[in-house]
Amino acid sequence: MKNWILFIVTAVVVFLLGMLASSVINRKSEAKFAYVPKVEISENEPRNEVWGKNFPKEYQSYIQTLDTTFQSYQGGSKMIDLLEEDPRLVILWAGYGFSKDYNQGRGHYYAVEDLQNTLRTGGPKGKGDGPMPSTCWTCKSPDVPRLMNEHGVDEFYKGKWADKGSEVVDPIGCADCHDSKDMSLQVTRPALIEAFEEMGKDINQATHQEMRSLVCAQCHVEYYFNKNIPGKEGIPYLVFPWKNGMSSDDMEKYYDDIEFSDWTHKLSKAPMLKAQHPGYEVYLTGVHADRGVSCADCHMPYKTEGGQKFTDHKIQSPLNNVANSCQVCHRQEANKLIENVYTRQKKSTESRLKLEDALVKAHIEAKKAWDLGATEVQMKDILTDIRHAQWRWDYAAASHGGSFHSPVEIGRVISSGLDAAAEARIKLSRLLAVRI
Ligand code: HEC
Ligand code: HEC
Ligand code: HEC
Ligand code: HEC
Question: Quick one: pLDDT at residue 19?
Answer without folding.
Answer: 64
